[in-house]
Amino acid sequence: MKIPGPLALAAGPALGAIALRLLAGTLRVRREEAGVAPLWAARTPLIYAMWHGRLLLLPCLYGRRGAHTLTSRSRDGELVSRWIRRFGLVPVRGSSSRGGGEALRALTRALRDGREVVVVPDGPRGPREVLKPGVIALARLSGAPIVPVAVGASREWRLRSWDEFRIPRPFARCVVRFGEPIHVSRAADRAGEEAARKEVEAALRGLSWQVDEEARR
User: Fold this and answer.
1) What order do you get walking across the sheet with 28-32 strand by strand?
2) How big is the CA angle at 92 (ends 129 and 77), to the nearest 5 degrees?
3) What three-state secondary structure class fits 97?
4) Ordered alpha helix ranges (H), the chain
5) What is the pLDDT at residue 71?
6) Residues in CB range of 60: below 8 A, 6 or more apart
């Protein structure tokens, strides 16, 4: 991937934010929030987990909640960080390969301070829709529940990228659904963490299938 230059870093996030808001304004979005509404009312710190290929609309729809979000330390990560700030999200720089431990500690502190956190557990390079264990470790360390999130669209473009990144077509019907919270015991051993990993992965895959079906009806 081409490294973004100074002009792209300066103008790209602003133009990208405008483009997303214009696209979102054409969409018919149904929000299914019953699984998470009681936790919002109680101001419970939450870890939102979503697949990389389905994240496009979430900053525009829920960025106002001010969640902390992991982004890489690369130049592309800087571009993403500047873009999500325009929606109210708070970037935390790091990845599984660079600064992962530091980022995990920063996200844990945010949750213990009562904040919300967004994790994309198959990013930044995949494999697609295979859940990496970092989100499980974060839930175990912080005590915060993991809430699966998925977005489906009746009509969309899919990029030829590792994640088959999805872009809803203008005027599409979209469904956003929050799943039931999943808790990871602080006392979980490796077997317990692996069981939780499989549970969250299965929940995300099932939720993704559900929103795709609902959006097409």
Assistant:
1) 28-32, 173-178, 146-153, 47-49, 117-119, 68-71, 90-93
2) 65
3) coil
4) 6-24, 37-41, 58-62, 75-85, 100-112, 134-142, 190-216
5) 85
6) 20, 21, 24, 87
Asked, as a colleague might, if the bond just before 124 is cis with ω within 30 of 0, I would say yes
Burial class of residue 5 (count of CB atoms within 10 Å of its CB; 0-12, 13-18, 19+): exposed
Tokens of 129: 């829709």
What's this model's pTM, rounded to 2 decimal places?
0.92
The token pair that represents 142 in the structure block: 């912080």
**What would the two tokens of residue 34 be?**
């019953």
**Residue 115: exposed, middle, or buried by beta-carbon count in 10 A (0-12, 13-18, 19+)?**
middle
Residue 139: CA atoms inside 13 Å, Cβ hemisphere, count?
A: 28
Size of the chain in residues = 217
Rounded to an integer, what distance in angstroms lies between the CA atom of residue 97 and that of residue 11? 28
Q: In the numeric block, which tokens belong to residue 209? A: 């299938």
User: Are the C-beta atoms of residues 154 and 215 closer than 8 Å to each other?
Assistant: yes
Comparing 52-66, 86-100, 185-199, the range with the smallest average pLDDT is 86-100
Interval 117-163: pLDDT, tens: 999 999 888 899 999 999 999 999 999 999 999 999 999 999 999 99
Nearest by Cα to 67 from 85, 93, 79, 41: 85
Structural tokens at position 131: 């859940």
Q: Which residues on adjacent β-strands are paired with residue 57?
A: none
How far apart are alpha carbons 6 and 201 in whole angstroms? 38
CATH of segment(s) 6-216: 3.40.1130
